[in-house]
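REVIEWER CHECKLIST
Item 1: Sequence provided? yes
Item 2: Single chain? yes
Item 3: Sequence as submitted:
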Amino acid sequence: MRKFLLVPALLGALALATTACEVNKSISIGKTVSADKVEEQIVAKFGPPFDDGGIGPATAECPEDLKGEVGATIDCTVKDANGREYPLIVTVTAVDGDQVRFSMKEPPQPKGAE
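Item 4: Structure as written out by the authors:
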């Protein structure tokens, strides 16, 4: 019974965590941040909450590298151990030399979606 209550609570926490999460990473980027580096940051952010909620480990997939330009985006996915997928939009928010800042947010829900 508790497991059924924990999953909605965890999903709500995921929604809150992804709306304002920003990861700062110093990377020698050249012109891009590799998809592998972005995936590492996603797993670092969501791994502990997934583990604590009993749905870990978390894995992540990004289809391409992230351009090291402010405003550049890629659509990634974080997955739990049960195979559920949670879409994320990764957006570069700042670039200063070899330091890239990017945010991870859930995509907007269509009107009427729950």
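Item 5: Key structural point noted by reviewer: The helical segments are 2-19, 35-52.
Item 6: Recommendation: ____
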